Amino acid sequence: MTASSPSPMPAAPLPAEALEGTHWIDTLRDGTRVLIRPLRAEDSEREHAFIERLSGESRRFRFLCDFKEVSPALMQQLMDVHYPEQMAFVALAHDNGELREVGVSRYSATGEGHRCECAVTVAEDWRHRGLGVALMQHLIQLARRNGFQQMFSIDAADNEPMRELAHHLGFQRHIDPDDATQVIHTLAL
User: Fold this and answer.
1) How many angstroms separate the CA atoms of 81 and 20, rounded?
2) Does 48 fall in a domain?
3) Is 163 exposed, middle or buried (0-12, 13-18, 19+ CB in 10 A)?
4) For the chain, is the Cβ count within 10 Å smaller at the N or the C terminus?
């Protein structure tokens, strides 16, 4: 998939109820299987625990800042998904008999034409298996389906995992003109 490949005409956005029951069982490069599905209200505790388990560097890469505790305001923002303008997919895996969140991807419309900002985060112990690619592929497909024409992310310039993922998915990389410590990855949908 490259930024220059033609994309099909966008279909009408799916109604929110069409996402009910939407899920995928994806097999990662190492043979591990994960459940990927839309984020739900009942995932709040899992999302909180997922962010709490991230290292300081991973939090900085995801939120462009570090913090010691996940605030209620941040949790509300992350869980307040209004489809089709905002979407989040979680990756879940069994861990000692419990379903654990091991990754999340999301997009949010910017209000600037047909653009959406995206983010993806994978738990440190689940990296290098292809989970970020799987999460982003589902997100990109849905953004296309919902008529978005460009997806972008703003990332720390030293975020090598995102640099590799964005390159693999066909995103273009540019230095942020407002902040040289950041880069902007863009993908034509």
Assistant:
1) 14
2) yes
3) middle
4) N
DSSP designation for 109: E
pLDDT tens readout for residues 18-43: 566 689 999 999 999 999 999 999 99
Q: What is the CATH number of the domain that holds 94?
A: 3.40.630.30
What's the pLDDT score for residue 140? 97
Cβ 115 vs Cβ 107: under 8 Å: no
* Whether the predicted pLDDT of 6 surpasses 90: no
Name the domain count of the chain.
1
Q: Residues for the chain: how many in total?
A: 189
Q: Does residue 162 lie within any of the structural domains?
A: yes
How far is it, in rounded angstroms, from Cα 135 to Cα 88? 9
For range 107-125, the mean pLDDT: 95
Contact by Cβ (8 Å): 7, 144: yes
The SS3 assignment for 62 reads helix
For the residues 100-112, what does the mean pLDDT come to?
95
| Distance from C-alpha of 14 to C-alpha of 34, rounded to nearest angstrom | 24
Which range of residues forms the domain containing residue 58? 22-188
Under a CB-based contact definition with an 8 Å cutoff, are residues 7 and 143 in contact? Answer: no
